Amino acid sequence: MIIRDFRLSDIDDVLAIEYEAFSDPYPVDILLQLYESGAGFAVAEIGKRVVGYIIFWIRGGIGHIIAIAVNSNYRNMHVGSLLLEKTIKVFLSNNINIIGLEVRKSNSSAINFYLKHGFVKIREEDNYYGDGETAIIMNYTKSENN
After folding, report:
1. What pLDDT was estimated at residue 135?
2. HSE on the CB side for 30, CA within 13 Å?
3. Are 42 and 87 in contact (CB under 8 A)?
4. Whether the predicted pLDDT of 144 surpasses 80
5. Chain centre to alpha carbon of residue 140
6. What DSSP string describes 6-20?
7. Which neighbouring-strand residues pair with 50?
8. Dihedral pair phi/psi, residue 25, rounded to 5°
9. What angle do the packed helices 28-36 and 11-21 form, to 10 degrees?
């Protein structure tokens, strides 16, 4: 498996993963807008097939994970972990020591995934998502241990 920068030719694969993974997926124009605006955008590739992706950016000196998803056939194979770990290294190498994200309160597997990678729950934000669901706001802060 390789982690590499997103290319425009990957958009169909990324879009398919996005729609499979999320009940409220980003439409293609939003994904392209993020890419064109300079957001970090990386994909995981196995045998020339894109099986996962991550989108992130730095704003105001803080890193932010916008989206991460893995094709369901490749989950539990450390694809998401490799994408997240590489992104954390990118942030840290740019002296970004705080990384934030939001996750649906009902998405316990994602919450546990982030906890396993050193994120902590900061607070809840009611009615965060369009359907009214609460978001769990999580942060990763560089410490002496990571």
Report:
1. 96
2. 9
3. yes
4. no
5. 13
6. --GGGHHHHHHHHHH
7. 45
8. -65, 150
9. 120
Locate tokens 């992130």: which residue?
A: 56
Q: What is the pLDDT of residues 81-98, one digit of tens each?
A: 999 999 999 999 999 999
- For residue 67, the tally of other CB atoms under 10 A from its CB is 21
13-69 pLDDT, tens digit per residue, is 999 999 999 888 999 999 999 999 988 999 999 999 999 999 999 988 899 999 999
Amino acid sitting at position 68: I
**Token duo for residue 40:** 């970090």
d(CA 123, CA 42): 28
pLDDT at position 146 is 54
Number of Cβ atoms within 10 Å of the Cβ of 106: 12
Cβ-contact 48, 33 below 8 angstroms: no
Looking at 1-146, which runs of residues are DSSP E strands? 2-5, 40-46, 49-59, 62-70, 98-104, 120-125, 135-141
Q: Crossing angle of helices 79-93/108-116, nearest 10°?
A: 50
